[in-house]
Write the structure tokens for this entry.
Amino acid sequence: MSDHVLQVSDLKTHFFTRAGTVKSVDGVSFHVSRGEVLGLVGESGSGKSVTGFSIMGLIDPPGRIVEGSIKLNGKELVGLGEGEFRKVRGREVAMIFQDPMMTLNPVLRIDTQMIEAVTAHDKVSHKAARARARDALAKVGIPSPEERLKAYPHQFSGGMRQRVAIAIALLHRPPLIICDEPTTALDVTIQSQILAEMQSLCAETGTALVWITHDLGVVAGLADRIAVMYAGRIVEAGAVDPVLDTPLHPYTAGLLGSLPSEGEPGEMLRQIRGSTPSLARLPQGCAFAPRCDYAQADCLTIAPATTAFPGERGVRCHHPLSGTGVAA
Amino acid sequence: MNDRPILTLEGVSKRFAKPLDAAAKFANWFGAGNTEEVVHAVDSVDLSIGAGEVVGLVGESGCGKSTLGRVVAGIHKASAGRVSWRGRYTDEMSAEERHAATLAIQMIFQDPMSSLNPRMRVSDIVGEAPVVHGLTTRAGQADYVDDILNRVGLDPTYKRRYPHQFSGGQRARIGIARALAVKPEFLVCDESVAALDVSIQAQVLNLFMKLRDELNLTYLFISHDLGVVRHLSDRVVIMYLGRVVEAAPAAALFKGPQHPYAQALLANVPTITARKKRFSPLSGEIPSPLHPPSGCHFHPRCPHAGPRCKVERPALKTIASGHVAACHLHDGGVGAMAA
């Protein structure tokens, strides 16, 4: 327990809209250990980003965390006041977004923004803060950081902008960084640069990562453990190798079968039929049942609980694909 | 596949120029020396595509793959070079022939939301063109649309709906249905599955393969996703900053890429089989196509670059049957200057 940087238990974040209650996150539990990379995988609308926003305390009305707990280094974050949360954000947990233009203020120079981030938590002189900002830029591989400090965000390329966002996240060496699809908008060769940078930085500082993505390839290359989300719930979690090699949940297996790089060229892909359900009108029982090839009568009526499997593995399915479950 | 190509590009270039504004022209009177900014989006590309072939066109942002697709589809006119369709140059065609060629080559775009008119019902989006071009009559339109919607896996009872009432995957199918409505022989697919979730992407890719078999279509499939291209294509063409750097049958290219850029691109694609790998990226950024590097466009990022690469543009050289690459490494080395 003591080794867990982050412990999320039974988190429920719902959005109360006119069209009904949208259960974006509905009973999610996971933990991240020191220096560990957890890949949080899912398709659009699976609730992976809302999970990240919940940890950062960035849920705005009509959304609300209705239940559950988020413990960061043993400290409860749910119900923390905004003033308290400001002391946590940036110092104990930071976030990197898909679009760095969302992180960076377009009308302020990089140095203004970075110095502000430094002095938000540490009482240091302007000069010292600037030096720290410069060092952070140098560390993420931005050439001539002294000059680049004076630039505006639009003067950077997409990859460089994302590096600036990473540098800001690393300013206070937080023990945990939440990365929400940070390389999705980047080209393959630039994505590779950012991934390499994150790998070496985290190895150096012992930072734990929650890496939110839809790209199973990135997770395979980066993560220690993986959690697959579907319709607001984690349907399968465990170490990367067993989950990707012998998936137990039909949805995980379907995702892997849908990857064009895995099949024989020219063959039909093993697609998942249908499309993701609306989170406001989830089916009774297992949310995946209407698309599942293995669904039986009980899947349509009873929502499955998480079954534990050897090796810290959990699956939310009545009829897992292989192996035998032990009682949770 | 047969030997006679259905579509050929010969030295096709596309330049986009930004004309000087009044202030710059005024400054030029006093010798400011402002010149037009010209982007060479596509820089003399040769390509031929056989009937029934699926050619994958791969590259990163700004490499000109979409512009090339638009030239093929007839949306842009080539600045230089010629396009021929079924053995006839498009610039020599009569109006009637050109009309037929334009109908035969259809394009499917990345974002169905911006390529489908939000105020038109699906029945009109799909049914308008075939009526205009005389492929069906007003009276036969409804049946014609039903038939096409069935073909792409959409329920025809939804045809009175508007595009916003569909999910992303269904909208992609509407885009495909619209292209198929005029009975094309050749489809240019520009990142048609890029915006879709993995499970929906697999459904649309399966649809593309099914349609190819049923309708004997030829595809130019533009994508940045090597996994998708590998799965679908017979032949793969890799572009970098407006030029083709390598082209080969898909199996050969993925087994043994020859150009250093192709090698780096393939090595950097994350796959689920590579666990906890050390990412060993290419250094540097993709240069701006406004000011491309001299000689070989790739030389500032290339681990093998030599003095010759900075000066001389490498030509496409045949390495094996159907496998060409544009690199001095395959053409006398990078060190010595060509005499």
Observations:
- Residues 104-173 of chain A form one domain.
- The mean pLDDT of chain A is 88.
